[in-house]
Amino acid sequence: MRVPEAAIRKTLADANLQLAIYTNTGRFKENRSKAVAAEVLPEYQELRTRAAAIKRHTLDFLDVYLLQFESAVEAHGGKVIWASTGEEAADFILKLAKERAASLIVKSKSMTSEEIDLNERLAHHELEAVETDLGEYILQLAGQKPFHIVAPAIHMTRNDVADVFTEKLGIERDTVIENQAMTARRVLREKFLAAGIGVTGANFLAADAGAVVIVENEGNARLSHSAPPVHVAIAGIEKLIPRVRDLGVFLDLLGRSASGQALTSYTSIVSGPKRAGELDGPEEFYVVLLDAGRTKLLADKEKRESLQCIRCGACLNACPVYRKIGGHNYPWVYSGPIGKVITPQFQGRGKDPWLPFASSLCGACAEVCPVKIDIPGLLLQLRREAVAADPADRLLFRAWAWLMTRPAMYGMLARIGLRFSGVEMGPLAAWRAERDFPAVPEKSFRALWKERKK
Ligand code: SF4
Fold first, then answer.
1. What is the pTM of this model?
2. Which residues span the domain enclosing 278?
3. C-alpha of residue 306 to centroid of ligand 1, in Å
4. How far apart are CA 26 and CA 389, in angstroms?
5. Fewer CB atoms inside 10 A, N or C side of the chain?
6. H or E stretch including 378?
7. Residue 280 Cα, ligand 1 centroid: separation in angstroms?
8. Domains in the chain: how many in total?
């Protein structure tokens, strides 16, 4: 895939969209800075170090923790499904829906299900999947994909939402945010009560307790996993942490990094179906553990740290590129700096080779990452691999090396280059049109050196 230049230009030219992205990411960014400031959270850097160490350790022993997690889930009456591909994960949910005669599925907090196009696959089999996170619900009605990994409808204004609700729900146009939330609440309550299956994601999977941990602000994930008779949690295998008690470190960091909240409004720790004597909860509990490229990445010692990501979105809010081009110009569901790192690795490097190059390498992402992922370092690594894999680039650099070892030839070409440096030609003209260059000196370094020697 080529760089979606036309779409990016359209985003850049849309003043309302630019304002929405800039204001909303700016607010998150500022709130995060305040929430982790030394006078508010003096142990912030220590928490980051501990979180990174726990994640690194878990990835080093992932096979052990995955099996421990499976045993603990089964001990509580649940079942773990191992899915090596997105198709396998979706097929399990499809089969389950057919067996349980569930034609309506409510969903919440799951970028992983976005990753495997679960809604589209279910719709193909005439099953209705309804997103219940307010932002996701709005996007589903609007026929759009998430714009941001934490705040999926960050790009939409109250007027946009009013238009979508009027068109799709057939209600009178209302731009009051509270009323819009109440409308969604009214519609979704009916769906929660009628759904045969609730599908959620997971922020963490605690190996010792066999528990799925879901962090949210609206309570819709809690309804999704407790109201329908069947709960399916779908999560990438990298979501494991060794113990429930490790959660303290991550919960301290996640809300603060995402939105500046000391703690998100709801934290659910789900470890199995309803027990005997309990009034609420599902009768069946499944955890789909998704690989889909993760074990391949795990085997790559240099780049496996990208699996440490806890999807807080802080790197998106800090990124000068994301804050201009927004989330829909990225080719896959994960956008921003972490999207540039994991998309080529999960989807195969050949698919979007330009992605790791779409960065200024300013380092703002690494600075805010709560689990200390060296995103610029990973991008450089991916760039090196992309260049090494591209025959045209290889040829170019070989030619460059040849030229650099022939001073006379280099000098002659440099002189010619200086003479034509002001002439704009072909694609170079377009490339130069958006860049400021220092004035080209009249004499080359070699000429000046010669003069000085004299
Ligand atoms: S890479 Fe770091 S900052 Fe970005 S989403 Fe993941 S955890 Fe958050």
1. 0.89
2. 39-295
3. 9
4. 37
5. C
6. helix 375-389
7. 34
8. 2
